Amino acid sequence: MYTASDLRKGLRIKIENDPYIVTEFNFVKPGKGQALYRCKLKNMINGNQFERTFRSVDVFETADLQEKKMQYLYKEEGKYCFMDNQSYEQVFLTEEQVGEAKHFLLDNIEVEILLFEERPLGISLPNFIDVVVTKADPWAKGDSVSGNTKPVTVQTGYQLQVPPFIEEGEKIRIDTRSGEYLTRVKG
Amino acid sequence: MDEGWTLAAKADALKLRARMVQAIRRFFVERDFLEVETPCRIPAPAPECHIEPVASGEWFLHPSPELCMKRLLAAGYPKIFQLCRCFRGGERGERHLPEFTLLEWYRSHADYRALMDDCEGLIGQMAGELGFGSSLGPPGRRIRLGPPWERLTVREAFARYAPVPLSEALAADRFDEILALSIEPRLGNETPVFLYDYPAELGSLARVKAGDPSVAERFELYIAGLEVANAFSELTDPREQRRRFEEAIRRRRRQGRPVSPMPESFLEALAGMPPSAGIALGIDRLAMTVSGRERIEDVVAFTPESL
User: What are the φ and ψ backbone dihedral angles of B95, each rounded to 5 degrees?
Assistant: First the structure.
């Protein structure tokens, strides 16, 4: 249970059975008057945002959020399927819930699924993944000016800029937070 | 973030603040006010519904120096001022620090109108000494400081700016919310504004108006939407003051909040206090308006989070 004085940016609370995250917060108080807690809240299920002002007497339930390790299985009709390898339980996320992570979903990759009362809300990836380059223009010898890049496509279909010496069939490491090339992986 | 850099970036605001405080002292000394110091650790602060005293052992850090200063008035000191740190639990926001600096001054044989004149004189003279001339604020949003400043009753302010009239706001317990969110941002953008004559039930330590017992002689000063000061024609009736304190204690008990002891020595002294007027002005907030900073942390060297 939280009271209004616990409110701060990033806090996750439950309102009318939905989980919300506080995205903006300010404390307002007329000198002799009541403390007011102005919040911008985002519904973690549907993304709806609204502003609300709370008072010190207001109390909130904590949002029961969990992260569970799951394995990516497949995509079908716009849904992404993940499985808990211990219980074999499967969950489905929409394209919107998966967000940018869809570019890095390798077959059988292990990810963290954010759950609210057993309902999946979102996904977090490992920070780095290694992928095979499936499409790249050949390296034009002599083009060794540092800073030059060229576009390639990797096995998940994701396109990014890499140094010109990267060739088809090679493995590269990507930072999933920025989506950028990090290094060439040998072997 | 690098601490040296953070503190160095505040140098302009901190220097301006220091000059501001020096100008304030000069103003009061020139007018024969006595600068006093009273203990910041006290056994019994004034019971208030919405101010949380910070405990210090068995006693409390004062949320305001008002009680001791009024005992000095009662003892025959006619014009006094104090600059001191005050403490209020749980107050932290863009305009609040749990430890902050108050300027309080008191005049015996005067009422709140004399304090309005003091405010016009003090802030006008200070701005002049700091080189701002007769206005404050960025170009295009200058706030004129030449007297007289706008004077607006609470009732008028609700009629002009609030979605519901004052009576309805009070009945629905929405007074503070409407004042803070709908009215305050509109106040003090051309000249500073005195918002005055509060509903009697929000009188706190102010006396009710002669001829209109529905309001108390209390005002707040607003500059650029920021509440800078709160003032009273002081209540000098110890029985009425005790009744208000008891009511505040009852309401706190009902809400399950901690209560502090009745300030008996203050109530005893109040019987001998001459008719007086007193005001508390937030130095950090005045420094914000003078330096044009939006956040209170920009006008103090350290915040609780940086310690």
Answer: -120, 10
